[in-house]
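Supplementary Text 2. Reproducibility record for the structural model of the 142-residue chain.

All settings were left at their defaults, and a single model was retained for analysis rather than an ensemble. We include the record here because the model underlies the residue-level annotations in Supplementary Table 4.
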Amino acid sequence: MRTPLHDAAARPVRDDKGSNGSVVRVLVADDSDAFQRAAAQVVDVCPGFVLAATASSGEEAIALNEQVHPDLVLLDVRMPGMGGIAAAGEITAADPGVQVVLISGGPREDAPGMAGSSLPYLAKSSFGPDALRTLWLGRVPG
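Retained model, structure tokens:
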């Protein structure tokens, strides 16, 4: 695991830079190794973004959030143990400045538990470099 590059409380207003002033640090939490690899490749080709860590469960995402202090967290809705919605609640409670986006394999209305959630959501099939930049700027791509 990587060492934190900055203090999570020192996040600036969201722009195209991360909280350390130069890159946007991304944490990807998904139980699919294939999606983790694909997301890592997307982050790698996006200037200004760096993969801070990957997790395969909600519990692991919470622990890594505390260790690597990402700027953007992508959480799969369904993971073994704690899913993304529950993990998102804990992550944002501990670190209100982090941008959390829920992801899943289908449309938002098909993702379990999303009906009552106000968190941004993205279908995995829509995830790519443009979507990553748009997510960081706080708008969910169409």
